[in-house]
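Render this sequence as a predicted structure.
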Amino acid sequence: MQNEQDQIQNGDKGGVHSGAQTGVGSGRREANAKATRDAMIAAGRAAFTQHGFADASLDEIVQDAQVTTGALYHHFGNKKGLFQAVAEGIEEDLMNRISAELSDDMSGWEQLELTMHLTFALCADSGVHRILFSDAPNVIGMREWRNIELRYGFGLVRRMLNKLNEDGELNCCSVDLTAQMLLGAVMEAVHAVVMSEDSERTAAEAKKTLLGFISTLKVAHGAPA
C-alpha cells in the first residue's frame, strides 16, 4: 500500500511537472512568435517608409528582420498583409498617444481641438504620411481602410462629434460626413506641410485654418433667432 501511494504521489508530481513544462513551452513559443512578428513589422515599417509599398522589397524586409520568407508568409500571408499590420500598428499608436493627452475635465470642444492638433502634428511625420495617407487607401482599398480607421482615429473623432451633437453643441447635417471632412482637412494640411519649402510657416497657417474650420461647427448659443 505504501509503495502504491508513493507511485500515485510520484505520478501526480510527474503530471504536474509535465503540465508545467507544457505551459512554459507554450508561453515561450508565443513569446518567440510575437518577437518574430514584431521584428517583421518594424522592418516592414522602415521599408514602406523609405520606399513606399510598391518599391519595398520583401527580401530586404526579411533580411532586416532576420527571419525567413516563409515566416513572413506564415504570419502575414503576403506583402499586403504585412503592410496592413504596419498601418494598423501606426493607427493604434497614434490613437493611444492622443488618448493619453485627453482628460475628463476638458470640454468636448477642447478634446476635439486637441485631437485635431495632435493628429496633425503626429501625421506630419513623412513616414506616417506616406503609409497612412498615400499608400493605405490604395493598397488596402478605400472601403476596407475606412472600416479599419473606424477602430482608431476616425472612430475617435466620430465619437467626439456624436457626443457634441447629442449635447446640442454641434452645428452640422451629418456627423459621419463632418468627421470625414475634418480628417480630410488634416490630411491635406499635412500634405501641404510635407510638400512646403517653409514647413514651419505652413504648419502654423494650417493649424490656424483647422481651428477656424472647427469653430464653424460650434452652435452659437444666445444668437438671435
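Summary. Residues 23 and 52 are 41 Å apart (CA to CA). Confidence is low (pLDDT under 50) at residues 1-14.
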